[in-house]
Every structure is written in structure tokens, then in C-alpha cells.
Amino acid sequence: MSTVHLIDHPLVQHKLTLMRRKEASTNSFRRMLGELSTLMAYEITRDFPLQDLEIETPMEKMVGKVIDGKKLALVSILRAGNGFLDGMLNVVPGARIGHIGLYRDPETLQPVEYYFKMPDNMGERDVIVVDPMLATGNSAAAAVQQLKDKCQPKSIKFMCLLAAPEGIKTMQAAHPDVDIYTAAVDRQLNDHGYILPGLGDAGDRIFGTK
Questions:
Q1: Is residue 9 part of a domain?
Q2: What is the pLDDT of residue 107?
Q3: Residue 134 assigned as binding residue
Q4: Which of 52, 57, 108, 120 is catalytic?
Q5: At residue 4, does pLDDT exceed 90?
Q6: E strands within 28-85?
Q7: In a domain, 152, yes or no
Q8: Is 179 a catalytic residue?
């Protein structure tokens, strides 16, 4: 069974609380998401591989360590996942970017893929899939399955702002090998599949749409 990693750093929790407020503007929500995603990226990359890099300090040459960013891919589940990318690239600027677009079929209620674009050499890469909300978990599970079927990456992690118990259960059942990183596990879903207490529709709040 995969592990749920709760990122409870005080700065993460502080910014998340400010983002939850209904009066938070689009500008402040987007800015805080960028700051928070940078902090979360620090935690999720804690065990990432390093490579040697020969450099020259003002005093002498030496061999230092850098994250092997060329082997990392950040995969955004459209559209809300894009809100994570700039903040994470502050930490791992060498990462490549992929996108997966999914919509929910109104009859079957199952995710349907409409867009899939990945960097080259995905079989050699560690992947972080990002989406602010893990609600039912159906879209996240479908996105990870598409990655496995089409790309077979070295490893996959999933990162979100908020997770509902229902979404965690769905992801762990479908992908017991994919760890989940989140800033909070909220109480439940409502009848429309929104997380409670949640923060509303993350995509709308990031992009100022309704």
C-alpha cells in the first residue's frame, strides 16, 4: 500500500489556510499557490537522486552534488495542475514538463483523455504528477494509469494541495506503488464531489473563471 505523506511544515499550513478563505483574490490565491508549491517541492524531492558536478569556487575546484533534474518530469493534470509548475521549477529548474487532459463523461462519469503530451525518454525519468485536489481520485488514478501504459517511467509520485479520504482510497487501490504527498487530508466529499471543508474549485480560483 502506498504511503500518504502529510506536509505539515508551518509555512505550508499557514499559506494553505490563507488560500482556503473565500475572500482570497485570484491574484493572492495564485501567488500563494506558487509559494506553497515551492515549499512542497522541497519535501517531495527529499529522496531524489543526486549527480556529481565539477565546479570552481572563488578558491578552488571541487565536485559538488546537484539534483539530477534532467531525469525528472513534472506532469500536470490539466488545467489546475499548471498552477503548481512555476513554484516547483524554482526548486528543480531542469525538470521536463508533461501534460494530461481529462474530462468526465456525463453518462458514465468516467475520465476520458483528450490530451497527452510528454517529454522524451520517459522510461528513464522519475515523475511527479501534480493536481491541486485529490477528490474522488478517478482523474488522478486514470492519469497515472495512462502514464504507466504509455511511458513506463522509473517511478511516480502524486502531489496535491488537498486530499479527501475517498480519493486516497481510490488512488491506493488503483496504484499501491504511488505515494501521495499532500498539505492536508480533509473530512469528506459532498454530493457533487467537492472536498469539505476544501477551498472550492482550484482551477477557477487559479485562473479567475467560474
A1: yes
A2: 74
A3: yes
A4: 108
A5: yes
A6: 50-56, 61-67, 72-77
A7: yes
A8: no
Q: In angstroms, rounded to a whole number, what is the distance separating the alpha carbons of residues 105 and 111?
A: 6
Beta bridge partners of 117: 99
Domain containing residue 97: CATH number: 3.40.50.2020
Q: Domain range spanning residue 136?
A: 4-48+66-207
**Which whole number is the average pLDDT over 38-45?**
92
CA distance 95 to 103: 26
Residue for grid cell 474530462 = 103
Does the structure show a pLDDT above 90 at 93? no
Number of domains in the chain: 1
104 belongs to the catalytic site: yes
- 181 is written with which cell numbers? 504527498
Can 120 be counted among the known catalytic residues?
A: no
Note whether residue 94 is domain-resident. yes
Grid coordinates representing 122 are 520517459
Has residue 54 been placed in a domain?
no
pLDDT tens, 135-187? 999 999 999 999 999 999 999 999 999 999 999 999 999 999 999 999 999 99
Distance (Å) of CA 207 to CA 30, 74, 79, 82, 157:
8, 20, 9, 10, 25
79: annotated binding-site residue?
yes
